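[job 4471] stage=fold_predict status=RUNNING
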Amino acid sequence: MSEQTRLMQVFLLNSLAFLLVIAFIGCGDQESDSGGFTSTMTSVTDEVNPGGPGDQGTYNPNTQQSVVQEIDVPDPHKLFDGWAEPEFALVFTGRQHGYIEPCGCAGLEHQKGGLSRRHTFLNSLRDKGWDIIPIDAGNLVRRIGRQSEIKFQLTAAGMATMGYVAIGIGPDDLKLPSGELLATVADDGDGSSPYVSSNVSIIDRDLVPQYKVVSHGDKKIGIVSIIGETYLSGVGSDEILVEESRSAIRDSLSQLENENCDVLVLMIKETLQKSIQISEEFPQFKFVVTSGASGEPEYDLRKIGESGNSLIQIGKKGMYGLVLAWFESEQEWKYQRVSLTSRYEDSNEVLQWLKDYQVELQRLGFEGLGIRASEHPSGASFVGSKSCASCHQPEYETWLETPHAHATASLEHPTDRVDIPRQYDPECLSCHVTGWRPQQYTPYTSGFESLATSSHLTGNGCENCHGPGSDHVRVESADSEISPAEIQEFREAMQLSLDDAKRTTCFECHDLDNSPDFHDEGAFESYWERIVH
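[job 4471] inference complete, writing structure tokens
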């Protein structure tokens, strides 16, 4: 290896060690034609900057930057500005997608969402004396496996505590085992289940309510929930029964005619364009709440065509509470987008749920969670960063001073929610130890297993960027004669180009959840300048 090549390797090793862990520790007025509500609608601005962390728009991997919709920063003090006490308020959440809490890697003060803040937010409205009707658009989980099942159970129990009256079922929820899903969502015939699905059911159509009717005084709100065809690909089996969405809507509307509802709401998992099309086709729905659109919730209700109905985007990762309040005296609907930021303190009750969740992960262990290790594509094994020190001592010592070296310790002793350690959580370990697949949350066969057996693989080590080093170490330290060509082959295998680091490797952990500012134009170069050596 030439001196120039060796220096470049050292440079990359230490630079990436610092880069990957920056964020480590671990979502017009119109007439109404929908019945008894003849109303106008107004909206007020949100209380936070929509361009903050966790709200970065769409990441473009080809340009290495986020595309953020330009929008005026709202006044942070105008939450429910000018509102009197409403007759009642519908509060929409949804698309939790497994984020029972923000990842926290960018600091909880910079991130939105989580069940803990949601609980506090809903209680804050009740503390105002408001009569609220919590409704969730569904898609509570995103992956298969025992960990997702536990999250689903935790969320379902939490939403019952929070008083949800209607909860949609999303396509990712249907990935759960049918028995597990049905045990939670099935209606026992007494109408007590809050879950609603108009075109998808489990095992038997009669087991999941096709629509919900929520009453408030003499007012009745009818709720229909569908999964659009865009998201139904691959859904459907002997246990999952699927009906065409428009046919299901027509059937639900027919049955709702006998309910004499004052306002109808459609929750739909579909793209923005198709959600608008369906909204135009079915003007009976005063409000259409879409959880399939990729954008963030808008600050104003989006009016659709000439019908007077409105579209609401639910946002992503459970980051928002969308309040739609009815004022009887004014015959008016008012709308408020609320970001679930750190302005809402953690609910102690939910923090205990999260703590119990981590205890359950520890009890089950990797085997109980169905976590299976796989061979690394190179066939090599992980040997730990200390094995690099004999030939790369200066680089190793530099790594020791970076947060990467302490990534595992940050799970044992987190700086946020300090009494909830996460060293048994695969979704956290994947970027906080050495020898895991960050985006799959599974280990390689020679990767970190536990603090007791894999102390040499704690921290986010050299090999996470350069690959497992067993072959490289073997040929460099072999007593027998190794050909120069073989030595060079394994040296080159450990090298990582700056372009590859910037284009792919760093983003394995520096994704939009954990390090949103890392995706801004020029961010990579800025971080690089701080650690050039």
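[job 4471] summary: The two ends are 19 Å apart (CA to CA).
[job 4471] exit 0
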